[in-house]
Amino acid sequence: MKQNTPSLIQDQRPASEPQATPASNSTPSRAETNFVPSPDEVSRRAYFSYVNQGSLPGHEVQHWLEAEKQLVEERKQTQVHSRRH
Asked: How many whole angstroms separate alpha carbon 78 and alpha carbon 39?
């Protein structure tokens, strides 16, 4: 039985694998501006939000979206600070 796995172009990596980008003080590259946190990171952050807000059911989507937003903002802040040094 043949497995249905996507083939990768020679220089292409899966989305979950971090992309190496050269350090520079210029405009952010597409890889930096298109950062997408991993589902595991978002899930962990959303779960802690759920617990910290009293474990009330029915707000899963809000917790998920807020967790994604926080992780993207943290990444942006990290990049800004790393460029200054």
From this structure: 20
pLDDT of residue 10: 43
pLDDT-derived band at 75 (thresholds 50, 70, 90) equals: very high
| Pair of tokens at residue 54 | 């009293």
User: Domain extents for the chain?
Assistant: 32-84
In a 10 Å sphere around its CB, with 0-12 CB exposed, 13-18 middle and 19+ buried, how is residue 63 labelled? buried
Q: Give residues with Cβ within 8 angstroms of 5, minimum separation 6.
A: none
Instruction: Give the integer Cα–Cα distance in Å for 24 and 33.
Output: 14
CB contact at 8 A, 35 and 72: yes
Amino acid sitting at position 32: E
- 85 vs 5, more confident: 85
Q: What is the pTM of this model?
A: 0.57
